[in-house]
Fold this sequence. Notes:
- By secondary structure, the protein is an alpha/beta fold.
- The chain folds into 2 domains: about 10-155 and about 395-410, 2-Layer Sandwich (Nucleotidyltransferase, domain 5), CATH 3.30.420.40; about 200-390, 2-Layer Sandwich (Nucleotidyltransferase, domain 5), CATH 3.30.420.40.
- It is about 35% helix and about 20% strand.
- The chain has helices at about 65-75, 115-120, 130-145, 165, 170-180, 185-200, 255-260, 265-275, 280-285, 290-300, 300-325, 335-340, 345-350, 360-365, 390-405, and strands at about 10-15, 20-25, 30-40, 45-50, 55-60, 95-100, 110, 150-155, 210-215, 220-225, 230, 330-335, 375, 385.
- A hairpin with a 7-residue loop joins β3 (about 30-40) and β4.
- The longest helix is centred in the last third of the chain and has 24 residues, at about 300-325.
- Mean pLDDT is about 95; it is low at about 405-420.
- Bound molecules: adenosine-5'-diphosphate.
- The site of adenosine-5'-diphosphate has 13 residues, from α10 and α12.
- The site of adenosine-5'-diphosphate (ADP) has 13 residues, from α10 and α12.
Amino acid sequence: xxxxxxxxxxxxxxxSSSLKFTMYAMDQEKxxxxxxVERIGLNEPFLKYERHDGKSFKEQALVSTHEEALELVxxxxxxxxxxxxxxxxxxxxxxxxxxxxxxNFHDSVIVTNEVKNNIRECSSLAPLHNPPNxxxxxxxxxxxxxxxxxxxxxTAFHHSMPxxxxxxxxxxxxxxxxxxxxxxxxxxSHKFVSYATADxxxxxxxxxxxxxxxxxxxxxxxxxxxGNVLDTSMGMTPLNGLVMGTxxxxxxxxxxxxxxxxxxxxxxxxRLLNKCSGLLGVSGIGSGDMRDNITASQAGNMQAQxxxxxxxxxxxxxxxxxxxxxxGADAVVFTGGIGENSVYIRDQVISKLGCLGCHLxxxxxxxxxxxxxxxxxxxxxxxxxxxxxNEELMIARETVRLLTIPSKAIPAPHSSIPxx
Length: 420
Ligand code: ADP
């Protein structure tokens, strides 16, 4: 017999110096309160808090650890003035974002000591993310003693990729010995928008071929065939693929060797390619933010114009490639800060997709206002869709799914389409 579905689900996303939270009432998939504690362990930490009725505030947070940050969040959630729960006992389950599940995790899991050890083992693949993600889980275990925790991995959705997509063309031993392969990221977002697009189109995801483009500061694109990932642009790390705010994306690996031979250290090259490249590096305007680059470009800055052309060209080239390996597609889906909000970038990209049967309706493109919308003309064979992502809600749904179905009955990942 399935367990009763948890209703009050807390979603936690713990970063190195931040703790983001959303409290959901999952019987209506409604957020009750959300916010973030930032600058944990640094000077002047603060809390931003927003309640479902619009009440919001920002205040100084006297915390220096993630556990203290969580205690502060808990105090607010039950505060008579700004709270949304009568008692902390009302929290029935906690879902956590975990960036890297390596090869261990093909699906979300209920946290156990073994799971924590496995997440720790994956830390070498995501040294900046997995340790704080685990710290968030441990803080919740301390504060909420008997409440189940579920880990939801950014990499899990991509586990259905075939070996021909996830292997690099280097000797196979390197995959076996060191786990060098493509893992993919933003999986929770790609999964959310895939299901949401199926809803919008009124078709089962199992019958659709989609190209989902998550375009934020980090950006990735995924070919989704009937709910399974066929390929994705990020690789063993989130550096590969599209041109991003500060990351280079695809680059000839020999560039790295060349720079190393010229005396740059691995840390120097890491900083160059992750923090100083992409829109920031090409435009030279001191910002990798797309809005700043569009403003500079429209003011006539030729380097910013070039940076945007590169961003668009790389994206179009991936769309063409994924359209081909999918053997045609039903829709290309735009999400993330740029994908959801930039009328201009969508226009630039879609105007190059005519050969795939995708034609922009400029009026629909202008009027999306952050809502799900089809922005291609009604006779387009390949639809263009804007779909706001909601990774927190996806994590809450996964948490409910894991805790409602007895674990033995959870289908093998992607052997069938779960009803998330
Ligand atoms: P993150 O990857 O950090 O979560 P977001 O998904 O919030 O980031 O996306 C941030 C990016 O979205 C920034 O480059 C920002 O400039 C861009 N963006 C947000 N709104 C717009 C807009 N109206 N036009 C163009 N770009 C936008």
